[in-house]
TrEMBL record, chain A:
It comes from the Bacteria. GO terms for biological process: transmembrane transport. One of its GO terms (cellular component) is plasma membrane. The chain crosses the membrane at residues 9-26, 101-128, 140-160, 190-210, 246-272, 292-318. It comes from Streptomyces nodosus. Belongs to the binding-protein-dependent transport system permease family. InterPro entries: BPD_transp_1_N, MetI-like, MetI-like_sf. This is ABC transporter permease. Pfam families: BPD_transp_1 (PF00528), BPD_transp_1_N (PF19300). It is a multi-pass membrane protein.
TrEMBL record, chain B:
It is a multi-pass membrane protein. It is found in: Cell membrane. SUPFAM superfamilies: MetI-like (SSF161098). The chain crosses the membrane at residues 46-67, 110-133, 145-164, 170-189, 227-251, 277-301. Coiled coil: none annotated. GO terms for cellular component: plasma membrane. It comes from Streptomyces nodosus. The keyword Kinase does not apply. It holds the Pfam family BPD_transp_1. GO terms for molecular function: dipeptide transmembrane transporter activity. Residues 106-298 form the ABC transmembrane type-1 domain. This is ABC transporter permease. Residues 1-14 have a biased composition (Pro residues).
Length: 331, 312
């Protein structure tokens, strides 16, 4: 088990280093000079002002230092939680902008990931044993997984918001309400939360249901199931074993799916104009706000790594083989 | 579990570790090809999925030939007209023909699927075969690389690369998608290779002095060709979904049209609030139909190649 965790932690640590390095490299080694881009955005005409701005930005980015020093400096400011200043909302630090948006994204992602996983596995397991359910769940599941995230969001907004008028179509809360920890705001935020949540939930649900159904069918066809059946074991017992074995790959799948769902949350947030990280990324791209883009990217990577680590912990509890260290080779 | 993506936009194909075992994939009958064909033409899922994909592909390839204008973004008709006889899918707020945009959009959808899925499949095969066949330190390094790329959310990387590089064409988009969406497939191929490499015929080839890549492509790959083909189909579908997300965020190709770009402009010009459903419904149906039909065909293929799943 120690070996299992050592491997996992090594991968996570390396992933983090790679992500930070990529993040650092992009504005420095890519064609196109971010400093010039920012200066041209500011529409300064006098050459003296341009020179002053160039010097200021070069100093701010640290472009006037040797490359290795810039790299080390990037790390040290990261460790101190310093992501630089946002250009889009100028004097505000990037970390502050991100922390404002983070609660919305988390409130959207965590319930969507967990609920769709539970509901999808349950539906899939049911579908594997009832023909009628199988014939409805399976096609519906394929349609749902094949839908682009933003399209199901658009359709939901059209049906439940523009047509039925049940939910607000955009924003994280009504504009006449001040965000804060009170019942009015929370209810209003919940009202705005339903549609984005539903769109993420539905797309993920289909995938889990199909995966679980297929897994259970494989397990029920396997040798141990046939053997148990030949011994005269009750069907319920066989199904319980099949379920326990089928759920393990689904847990691995949950870890794999996290990075993808982060992406789904981004586009869904953009459709609903939901004030989370996704919208922040869009704003950062549109306003050429490099610091903000770097900051959000790092936050997403950190989030995915933490979630993956938690899933690894769960895996140890559920799969006895990881505890005895037999699964070291297959990670 | 794809990427995209998975996700890629990402669909959840069945678990890589458990799908067709290579032994089944090899179809150990006397004439495997014939037998597969026998079951293939009797598999409704495969036939329906394939038919939908082919119809849409035909629409994308041939459709533009029958249009008067070669520019799908031309302002040709009345503004914001609902579907009727002349404009089959209606027009946009600016009087662009939505049917024209749709058929051209299908083209770029298939193109990005082929490029992205193809590149991802090639990288996944190289990494997966080498890691699975060589084992040892090569495997350790490649597996670690795979895991690192797997954990980094590919859409975030694509966003950044796109935003900085500013290269906007279907080809470049496909290239980027291919380079980020291979990890799960590499993992699955590695696992399959692992179980094949200790078979007698591989040992025989090794004893007769064949080199690594020769053994991989002459002995191992043909024995899991059906599995590789199914992996490619899933990568193909995943690439289409990821591309549509990128287009929607405004990082799509700057020239021409794609289904994702259509959705983006519908959103941008508030087709939703104006009730112009014919603007945002067709492109979504197009993407869903292509990807969904691919997935269903994939299940059909699985049943064809894997005797255990047949019967029903």
């Amino acid at each position: 088990m120690a070996r299992y965790f050592a491997r996992k932690l090594l991968v996570y640590a390396l992933t983090f280093v790679v992500a930070v390095t990529v993040n650092w490299m992009i504005p420095r080694f890519m064609p196109g000079d971010p400093v010039s881009a920012m200066i041209s955005r500011a529409r300064v005409s006098q050459p003296e002002a341009v020179d002053a701005m160039r010097a200021y930005y070069n100093n701010l980015f640290g472009f006037d230092q040797p490359v290795w020093q810039q790299y080390l400096h990037f790390w040290s400011s990261l460790v101190h939680g310093d992501f630089g200043l946002s250009i889009w909302v100028f004097p505000k630090p990037v970390s502050e902008v991100i922390l404002d948006a983070l609660p919305y994204t988390l409130a959207l992602m965590i319930p969507a990931i967990l609920l769709s996983w539970f509901a999808g596995n349950w539906l899939g397991a049911l579908a594997a044993r009832r023909k009628i359910l199988d014939n409805t769940v399976l096609p519906a599941g394929y349609v749902l997984t094949a839908m682009p995230y933003m399209w199901i969001a658009v359709i939901l907004a059209w049906l439940l918001s523009a047509k039925a008028g049940w939910f607000p179509v955009s924003g994280g809360y009504s504009l006449d309400i001040q965000p804060g920890m009170n019942a009015d705001f929370l209810l209003d935020a919940l009202h705005h939360w339903v549609l984005p949540f539903l769109s993420l939930f539905l797309v993920a649900l289909g995938g889990w249901a199909i995966g679980m159904r297929n897994m259970i069918i494989y397990e029920l066809e396997s040798d141990y199931s046939t053997y148990l059946a030949a011994l005269g074991a009750p069907h319920r017992l066989i199904r319980r074993y099949a379920f326990r074995n089928a759920v393990l790959p689904q847990i691995t799948g949950l870890a794999l799916q996290l990075g993808v769902l982060v992406a789904g949350a981004l586009v869904t947030e953009i459709v609903f104009n939901y004030p989370g990280l996704g919208n922040l990324i869009l704003a950062a791209i549109q306003n050429r706000d490099f610091f903000l883009l770097q900051g959000t990217f790092l936050f997403i990577v950190i989030g995915v790594l933490i979630a993956n680590f938690l899933i690894d912990l769960v895996y140890v509890v559920v799969d006895p083989r990881t505890r005895t260290g037999m699964a070291g080779g297959q990670s | 579990m794809s990427t995209p993506p998975q996700p890629s936009g990402t669909p959840t194909p069945d678990t890589p570790d458990k799908t067709v075992g290579p032994s089944e994939a090899a179809a150990p009958a006397l004439t495997p090809g014939r037998e597969s064909l026998h079951y293939a033409v009797r598999n409704p899922k495969l036939l329906i999925g394939l038919a939908i994909v082919l119809i849409l592909l035909g629409t994308g390839v041939l459709g533009p030939l029958f249009l008067d204008s070669s520019d799908p973004n031309a302002y040709v008709g009345p503004q914001a007209a609902a579907p009727d006889g002349t404009y089959w899918l209606g027009t946009t707020t600016f009087g662009q023909d939505i049917y024209a945009q749709f058929v051209y959009g299908l083209r770029s959808t298939f193109l990005v699927g082929v490029i992205g899925g193809g590149i991802a499949a090639i990288v996944a095969m190289l990494v997966g075969f080498l890691a699975g066949y060589r084992g040892g330190i090569v495997d350790e390094i490649l597996t670690m690389l795979t895991n690192i790329v797997l954990v980094i959310p590919s859409l975030a990387v694509l966003l950044i690369a796109n935003a900085y590089l500013g290269v906007r064409s279907v080809g470049v988009q496909g290239l980027f998608i291919g380079l980020t969406s291979w990890p799960w497939a590499a993992r699955a191929i590695r696992a399959q290779t692992f179980s094949l490499r200790s078979r007698e015929f591989v040992d025989l080839a090794r004893l007769s002095g064949s080199r690594t890549w020769r053994i991989i492509f002459r002995e191992i790959a043909p024995n899991m060709s059906s599995y590789l083909f199914m992996t490619f189909i899933l990568l193909f579908g995943g690439s289409i979904l990821i591309a549509s997300s990128l287009d929607f965020i405004g990082l799509g190709p700057t020239e021409g049209v794609s289904l994702g770009l259509m959705l983006q402009s519908a959103q941008q010009w508030s087709a939703l609030q104006l009730g112009m459903w014919w603007w945002f419904v067709p492109p979504g149906i197009g993407i869903t139909a292509v990807v969904g039909a691919l997935y269903v065909a994939n299940v059909g293929l699985d049943e064809v190649f894997n005797p255990k799943l047949r019967e029903s």
